[in-house]
Write a structure and sequence with these properties.
Layout (H helix, E strand, L loop, with lengths): L18 H20 L11 H12 L16
């Protein structure tokens, strides 16, 4: 979870993620973790800037061959 998604936007000051969306995200992550555990896997969940968290995870794991990601689409104003 990137803390920047829970701060006000630069244009209007509204949070990018309000309480209802946050609840949906938390419930979705919980459900995904439970589903993965039933299949013998797990889900790593971290809080922080992705560029820092991913780097730390790679260091902890040691032998990482590839990392896949997507970039958030940003509105042009």
């Amino acid at each position: 979870f990137d803390p920047r998604h829970y701060q006000g936007t630069h244009c209007y000051g509204f949070p990018k993620t309000g309480p209802h969306r946050l609840r949906f995200l938390l419930e979705s992550v919980k459900d995904l973790r439970e589903t993965l555990k039933k299949k013998g896997s797990n889900l790593v969940v971290r809080k922080g800037k992705p560029e820092d968290v991913v780097c730390d995870l790679i260091t902890q794991l040691g032998s990482v061959n590839a990392v896949a990601f997507h970039e958030e689409v940003r509105e042009l104003l």
